[in-house]
Amino acid sequence: xxxxxxxxxxxxxxxxxxxxxxxxxxxxxxxxxxxxxxxxxxxxxxxxxxxxxxxxxxxxxxxxxxxxxxxxxxxxxxxxxxxxxxxxxxxxxxxxxxxxxxxxxxxxxxxxxxxxxxxxxxxxxxxxxxxxxxxxxxxxxxxxxxxxxxxxxxxxxxxxxxxxxxxxxxxxxxxxxxxxxxxxxxxxxxxxxxxxxxxxxxxxxxxxxxxxxxxxxxxxxxxxxxxxxxxxxxxxxxxxxxxxxxxxxxxxxxxxxxxxxxxxxxxxxxxxxxxxxxxxxxxxxxxxxxxxxxxxxxx
Length: 299
What we know:
Layout: E1 46-50, H1 54-68, E2 76-80, H2 91-96, E3 104-107, E4 114-117, H3 119-130, H4 138-168, H5 174-197, H6 208-221, H7 238-248, H8 251-258, H9 278-281, H10 284-294
Parallel strand pairs: 1-2
Antiparallel strand pairs: 1-3, 3-4
Helix pairs in contact: 1-3, 1-6, 1-8, 4-5, 4-6, 5-7, 6-7
């Protein structure tokens, strides 16, 4: 007989054991640091502490796009935060982001350092700092920001909802998967209808709204997230497919997706980024090849 999934919540919830499937070791019901660990600081104006999850990729795409436009002040050091090992709970990281989530940014170019956390907030901060990828006219600006905040509010249903129960939860729960699959497909339909009438999310121009939405919904459409492309019939969303393919052709998007990446093909992984030359010289395949060449014979 199949084990019943029926659960009766207690009157008072108590954290009695780790839960959360694959990510159980990073979940806890309290905030604050678990250990003392200072963050490294490089020489560039911007210090990014991140990992190449969709939320992290938003910011590295933005930084690479700014550099491609010639904004030298957008030079950055990207430091790897290993969330599976608890780096986000170190005292230095918590000081930059009390919510202990990547990405987090320090702007050390100002007389007083500025910390910025939450990926949407970082995109908006950078857009305003450099006057790029955010319309100035009230109507287009409002449209762009509306879609930026749409992403911030919608993606938890995709990641923490659908992605968690479909790919990571220790038990496959039909109700949970159906509930969040329905919502994700509704969101895809929202985007597909928008892109049927507009080249980009915000309208005719490429903006931070595209950068925010692409790593989540563009990644889903291109089959990068949760192994769920067939399950969600993503090929049916023709306008999202067109848009996602167009963005993927941008060199800055391709570079941004490599930064702080620790999975996939070694040639696509740049664990840390401290100079533009790192893309050619310090991806994991290059580092591995260099280590082999430098190894003594027989090692």
